Amino acid sequence: MGRIGFYGYFYWKCEEMKVVYLITGSGSEFYCANCYRDMLYLRAIKKVPGISARAVPLYLPPDKSLRDPGFEKEVFFGAISMFLRDKVKVLRNMSPFWDKILDSPPLLKLASKMSGSTNTDGLEDMTLNMISGDNSFQEHEVERLLRFISKDGAPDIIHLSNALIMGLGKLIKQKNSDINIVCSLLNEDDWIEDMKEPYRSKAWELMGEQAGCIDRFITPSNYYKELFVGKTGADPEKVDVVPIGFDPEPVEWPEKPSNNPSIGFFSRMNDYNGFDKMVDAFILLKESGRFSDLKLLACGGFTGEDKPFVSRQKKKIKRRGLDNYFELFDEFTGNGKIDFLKSVDIISVPVSKYDGYGLYILEANSAGIPVVMPHTGAFPEIIAHTGGGITYSPDTVGELAKNLAALINDKEKIHDLGAKGKKGVAENLSMRRMSVGISDVYNKSRKTT
User: Fold this and answer.
1) Is the predicted pLDDT of residue 369 greater than 90, yes or no?
2) Which helix (DSSP H) or strand (DSSP E) does residue 2 occupy?
3) C-alpha to C-alpha distance for 35 and 23, rounded to whole angstroms
4) DSSP secondary structure code for residue 295 in this structure
5) Pick from 35, 88, 258, 409: most CB atoms within 10 A?
6) How far is the C-alpha of 133 from the C-alpha of 387, rounded, in Å?
């Protein structure tokens, strides 16, 4: 039986179904846009009439601040046992007893504190095995997962959080061909493009081969759809674009701009996200002599691997006597995030790698804060949806500083772009629109079988 849904001013029909969302955890040491995206997907799925949904973590437990109701506590395919199986051949057939010990909550909690590495060295074979389904996903653990999620009847749909675990979808299909597999796509290229050849090309090739086991793909931008199809040769008709929706925080945001100007960086503080470029642009602005009161605020956290990089940026600021104009917010969720957003007038995340979406744009715009972003990746597409920012080209520190300076000097434009962005998120990138889009994808996946 289908259900007619009413949500805001949207009506839609969706088949009644059970959905299990398999989410790869990453720990909680930094602002993880993909982890936040997963929580937004889960919230959107649960708003669809007729759908019962729950999430099951893989590898590592999720950030507690992002754990919504319906998120199971038990972790499957624990990161420690998977890593050891990949690295030590004699351990590949170790008994499930050792899995329970190695993947116990205390050890996984410790592992999560050391997670977030962007270094693919030594992990190439494991990545290929995860995509293909060979070796990495032990059969007994696949069966344990299926038993766990089928206690009250097998799910109609299993939604994979990213394409790096497509092999698991294949193995599930082999065990139960009645289950439809939907796979999210976003920023897998960040990992794959860092792999050396021939692993890099092989990873994309394997994804193309495994695409036949997936009923539908879902990605938040046309940019990333084109990238994925171009790299893998996957059928573009199977890839649906559903922009990530966002319900603003129930907060009364202050009017922008404030009397004391401040620019903000809101993402994990590493070179991929361009934190060094933001620091360099800030230094250029301060040394121009035109922005004596300007402050740089940073929020988003960092891993142990990022610490030397962050330390170098802080030293650059201190050497120029600007440390009193720089503030690093330790908390990047809850009240810490809100305090940060209340304190900044403009946000920029000048990524070094192209981003397939940019949730920080939605976070900023929904708080009435305009963004200044490089004209790369999906940024032009997302800003066209919200109207809450400007893009610049070429992607250089000098051009970033130039565009920041122009906006800082135009208080009326800061206010207008902030207001447009707030309205644009509410009207064009709302959670309800996302729910409608996801329900459509799920209905399509059911028709493929």
Assistant:
1) yes
2) strand 2-7
3) 8
4) E
5) 35
6) 42
Q: Which amino acid is at 49?
A: P
172-203 pLDDT, tens digit each: 999 999 999 999 999 999 889 989 999 999 99
Phi, psi torsion values for 239, nearest 5 degrees: -105, 115
Residue 416 zone, left/alpha/beta (φ > 0; ψ -120 to 50; rest) = alpha
- Residue 308: asked if its preceding bond is cis (omega within 30°), the reply is no
What residues are paired with 6 via a beta bridge? 11
Task: Please tell me the distance from the alpha carbon of residue 273 to that of residue 276, in angstroms, as a whole number.
Answer: 8
Computed from CA positions of residues 95, 80, 22, 234, in that sequence, does the dihedral angle turn out positive or negative?
A: negative
Residue-wise pLDDT for 37-69, tens only, equals: 888 888 898 888 888 999 998 887 766 655 666
CATH number of 262-428: 3.40.50.2000
The CATH code belonging to domain 2-245+435-447 is 3.40.50.2000
Q: What are the start and end residues of each CATH 3.40.50.2000 domain in the chain? A: 2-245+435-447, 262-428
The count of other CB atoms within 10 Å of the CB of residue 422 is 23
- What are the pLDDT digits (tens) for 232-247? 999 999 999 999 998 8
Residue 270's CB: how many other CB atoms inside 10 A? 20
Query: Is the confidence at residue 434, as pLDDT, over 90?
Result: yes
Q: Which of 58-62, 215-219, 243-247, 260-264 has the highest mean pLDDT?
A: 215-219
Gap between the Cα atoms of 409 and 263, Å rounded: 12
Closest C-alpha to 445, from 241, 239, 243, 245:
239
Residue 420 burial (10 A CB sphere; 0-12, 13-18, 19+)? middle
Residues 6+ apart with CB under 8 A from 246: 40, 359, 362, 363, 366, 425, 429, 430, 431
- For 365, the token pair is 């715009």
Q: How far apart are CA 264 and CA 354, in angstroms?
A: 19
Structural contact between residues 356 and 378, judged by C-beta atoms closer than 8 angstroms: yes
> Global pTM?
0.89
Whole-angstrom distance, CA of residue 336 vs CA of residue 28: 14
Looking at this protein, which amino acid is placed at residue 66?
L
Identity of residue 445: S
* Element containing residue 326 per DSSP (H, E): strand 326-329
Query: What is the pairing mode between strands 216-219 and 180-184?
Result: parallel
* 181: its two tokens: 């597999």
